[in-house]
């Protein structure tokens, strides 16, 4: 929209005015911020010099205690003040180059003039403490900016809904204190600023979308009602962006009660973690905790068992077709992620309550101290109505008692005698001096003994005496035995007497046994082979990825559930890639947390995927319908209209996906006569893309194996600078890279080159979503290559959606 010059001038003047005030406040705060900092460090340094600890009398002690308390109270007060001021100071500095990005003029019903609301990344209030020069984007009134076009509008405050009329909505691009651009929005004109933002190139770091949050995204960001918020959103619809804005919103809204480390976000891989790590700091907030499910599994499984990671699992699924046992493994993956299996394990828990618990004998020096049989007998003696957990605790107490009495008996065991004989003089000396110390410590007894010695004119027992050496030996024996019982006791406390591996393993003995133990659970057809594979892994102290969560589930069924009550919000990104099992798990792990799950079933490329949106989705059942809100995002912001039109046709049900209006060339399908030709052509295309100014370019392959080959062969053809991305890659950088599709999830590139779009690569139904995921990583350009036929998912697309080339 054309802007009146008068408006421009006024806006420039206001901007200059606000910036002056910001600058003034910064200058004002500067010495205080610096001074406070000095003071605080100063006090901390002198802290222990000023308080002398005097404990000779009780009053002195009280006095010192009081001084310490007082000092630390002053310190805490100063530090609190310091933190607040520093925060303010930082906010002002962040505002200075670009104080705001939006403005609305709002006339509240019943008022006769409208108020100008300028919106920025944090609030800035006049010296008088009353008028807002800038409103934080998270304030209630700022939601008007995101939710409405000019016209009737309303927003919700803690006191109720405020209605009125929005007379103006204006967007600004302000850089280094200058207005670069200004747009007025009305019903017909879309989001100009968004148009501009989306036209730019991909970055190695995700950016905040605070200035252009869309209405449907705003609903996600500000949702504070449900226990479970599920977002099913098309590729590029801003799920991750909205999630991060939501974290910032929650931190603001609940700033009195929630810290950043009480929010945890599950990411698909470490590279993704680095990709999104700058968004919150950019918004002036601290980062939430970030982790992956794998990290958690590894932590709790400890060193006793090694779990495969999800990337090795998917690599197997994608590359091992035709290998013996392949079909069974696939069935196993699906089954072990299902609610059938969850139910089966719950039933198994009941069964274990009646029979079949497995224990590890407690052994000392290749000898059974307490056998598994004894434990089992003891265990099933307890009241059967008690839950498994409580009986395990009873058994634990019993074991600790048993150990105590066995320890006494053990002192006379032959091996202890052997050890005694091998003790060196140093160890003897140590015990000897211990015995003497004993004597000095009990100095009343010592004095008494001395007196008695004098009275009786009799020398008392000493080193040379028989009794003394017996005591010495006793002490040595008990020390030797104690040493070797410490680990046993520790083990019992950590439940290592429970044979979880055996308990999990015995589920996979035979079909009939499984049926019996799980109360007639559903069994997949290739069960016998699934059993064989599972047991083979267990024998090597390994677990398939699909077994890891169920294994922990069984472990906790018996040992009790681990919980973290600190965490208040859990975010799961790429939520379609988690099994119902894993969700069940997260729910238990964080009993006081609300959950936000974001994902796209269209990109469900792992076998254990969960549908997020279906009415019978296990996710909805997790907290129940009443506690769950489901939001769908269908507008795709990442890719140009041409790319979205192309990709959405690959998905059944993809019709509902709507592109944001941004134009570019159609996807290009290049057919080549051979692999050599392909590599040469890909290199030429990369050169051309770089010349066009694109600097984030990804050659996407189906598997890691294919990535390695492609990378190798592209290098041979001259692409030295190309980077190979593997599951170990920690940082996301710009440039040209080769990457397997399952690692490219969640990130985006200026240009995507699908290395091999043949039927061999993407032919089976479960490969459809892989191809879709690969293609939807592209923002501006999409190229596909094939050396023979095209994948059926490409062939099925109408020809007007792409260009063709062949060499
Ligand atoms: N409101 C918005 N304003 C500006 N940019 C946006 C907005 N929403 C989304 N985007 C941009 O669209 C792109 C895709 O966003 P994002 O990665 O959050 O989508 P996603 O739904 O998580 O995608 P995927 O499912 O493919 O991982 C990003 O570049 C993001 O900055």
Automatic annotation (TrEMBL):
Asked if Lyase is a keyword of the record, the answer is no
Quote the InterPro entries the UniProt record gives.
DNA_helicase_UvrD/REP (IPR000212), HelD_bacillota (IPR048228), P-loop_NTPase (IPR027417), UvrD-like_ATP-bd (IPR014016), UvrD-like_helicase_C (IPR027785)
Name of the featured protein: DNA helicase-2/ATP-dependent DNA helicase PcrA
Biological process terms from the Gene Ontology for this record are: recombinational repair
Q: Which UniProt keywords apply?
A: ATP-binding, Helicase, Hydrolase, Nucleotide-binding
Q: Report the GO molecular function annotations.
A: 3'-5' DNA helicase activity; ATP binding; DNA binding; hydrolase activity
**One Pfam family recorded for the sequence:** UvrD_C_2
Broadest EC class?
Answer: hydrolase
Q: Which Gene3D superfamilies match?
A: P-loop containing nucleotide triphosphate hydrolases
EC number(s) recorded for this UniProt protein? 3.6.4.12
> Superkingdom of this entry's organism?
Bacteria
Which positions are annotated as binding ATP? 233-240
